[in-house]
Design brief:
Keywords: Isomerase. One of its GO terms (molecular function) is isomerase activity. The protein is 51% helix and 9% strand. It has 18 helices and 12 strands. Strand 10, helix 15 and strand 11 form a beta-alpha-beta unit. The structure holds D-arabinaric acid (RAT) and zinc ion (ZN). The site of zinc ion has 3 residues, from loops.
Length: 423
């Protein structure tokens, strides 16, 4: 069907976006067979760290007192403060309501106990099937940290994730706290030396290769501070140069960098304590230029870095830009970033990831982001229709499939996972 007019265009884009399955390339979710690691349900939704930060702005409760409460009590406190005593209009609050509503809960009852009863009918396996279906997500990329004592045993025992869940090897402790990680590596039989020697390089690389073998990650990932520099005469600089980049290239496991997080700005907030600052793009530019055979997947946390990141991606095809990360995952910023990226890079980006920590959040994160993507695409397609250009529905399906799943799979070299539109 050839599209020439706005009404047909708008209807088609809406249908195609709604129907398109998403591969969510960065989450903090786990396969349901990873014990209690997968978080789901209304109490987890309400105690999301985005909401903890918000409740503390109203609540007189001491930080320690809050953290001493049980999960259910924390959820009740957040429900009362952020939903009943004030209107829940922030993006994180709205997200809870969208997720509940999407799950079939009648939010107007405002009855948390009743919400809990709905979830009590499910277990994590049924919940995964139901939520992936409701959110129209086909594959989920996890965040898997071999330094995490709760998670490591699952991998060492050979637990295989559900086929819809894929690993990402997260190496923050290795790169951001090597002094401590070095001790752990030694405990685990990697003979890293006190100094950065040939042997240390070999052993850290062996550690990475072993975990790549064990997890079969789609990429290696790290979050980095605004002060991140490269090249740099530091543990991090040396590990990236001598271990990460060679292993990433040789094993064809792209290196994902999430840059701009200032950890622990207010430590009393614990998991909600992190903030943001602008970073330099020079380290990334250096890597892209000096390592053309390496693939980099990158997002920045600061709004101010987004324009230069998009420009840099025009210069280097070994860079894939992804997502509206964390404090940027708000409609006003998603819209601005998506529009800017499409204008500068066309459709060669991964416009969004969910960063979901709670399974049910997939419902809201994708509903809200798809609404914005739809709006931007209608506007951009309309601009070209006004020149006399025409569009086929199949072309729109191709483009939307690229944005929401295929660009990711193609970039990481998994042509086998690419699905043509409409499937
Ligand atoms: O968005 C988040 O939930 C943050 O807490 C971080 O986990 C961040 O996304 C990260 O991956 O470091
Ligand atoms: Zn994350």
């Amino acid at each position: 069907m050839t599209i020439t007019h706005y009404e047909e265009l708008a209807r088609t884009v809406k249908e195609v976006v709604a129907k398109q399955k998403v591969t969510d390339m960065h989450t903090h979710l786990y396969s349901p067979n990873f014990g209690g690691l997968l978080l789901w349900g209304v109490d987890e939704l309400l105690t999301y760290h985005y909401l903890v930060a918000e409740v503390m702005r109203w609540s007189p409760i001491d930080y320690e007192e809050f953290w001493a409460l049980s999960k259910q009590e924390q959820a009740e406190h957040i429900w009362k403060t952020l939903f009943l005593e004030h209107s829940p209009v922030s993006e994180a609050c709205r997200g809870v309501l969208t997720s509940l509503e999407g799950f079939g809960v009648d939010v107007k009852t405002r009855d948390l106990h009743q919400f809990r009863e709905v979830y009590a009918r499910y277990d994590e396996y049924r919940q995964v099937d139901r939520v992936l279906e409701l959110a129209n997500v086909d594959h989920v990329v996890m965040t898997n940290d071999p330094f995490d004592d709760e998670e490591r045993p699952f991998w060492l025992n050979g637990t295989a994730p559900d086929s819809r869940f894929h690993a990402a090897l997260r190496i923050d402790p290795l790169l951001n706290d090597y002094a401590r990680s070095r001790e752990r590596l030694r405990e685990w039989g990697y003979a890293v030396e006190e100094e950065w020697t040939e042997q240390s390089v070999k052993e850290v690389s062996r550690f990475l290769t072993d975990w790549i073998g064990r997890m079969k990650p789609l990429y290696m990932a790290v979050s980095l501070p605004p002060s991140f520099a490269y090249p740099e005469d530091s543990d991090r600089g040396r590990i990236i140069r001598d271990c990460i980049l060679p292993v990433s290239r040789e094993r064809s496991v792209p290196f994902a960098m999430m840059i701009g997080v200032k950890r622990g700005v207010n430590p009393a907030l614990q998991s909600a304590s992190d903030s943001v600052d602008k970073a330099s793009l020079e380290p990334l530019e250096y890597m892209l230029k000096h390592h053309p055979d390496n693939k980099f997947i990158t997002t920045f946390l600061s709004r101010e870095n987004q324009h230069e990141l998009a420009v840099l991606a025009r210069k280097f095809r070994n860079l894939m830009v992804f997502g509206c990360w964390w404090f940027l995952n708000n409609p006003v910023l998603i819209e601005e970033m998506t529009r800017m990226r499409v204008e500068l890079l066309g459709l060669s980006v991964i416009p969004q990831h969910s960063d979901a920590r709670v399974l049910d959040q997939l419902i809201y994160k994708w509903k809200h982001s798809k609404e914005i993507l739809e709006k931007v695409l209608i506007e951009k397609y309309h601009d070209v229709l006004r020149t006399g250009w025409t569009l086929e529905r199949s072309e729109i399906e191709r483009d939307v499939a690229d944005l929401l799943r295929n660009n990711f799979w193609r970039f990481i070299g998994r042509e086998d996972m690419i699905e043509t539109a409409g499937n």
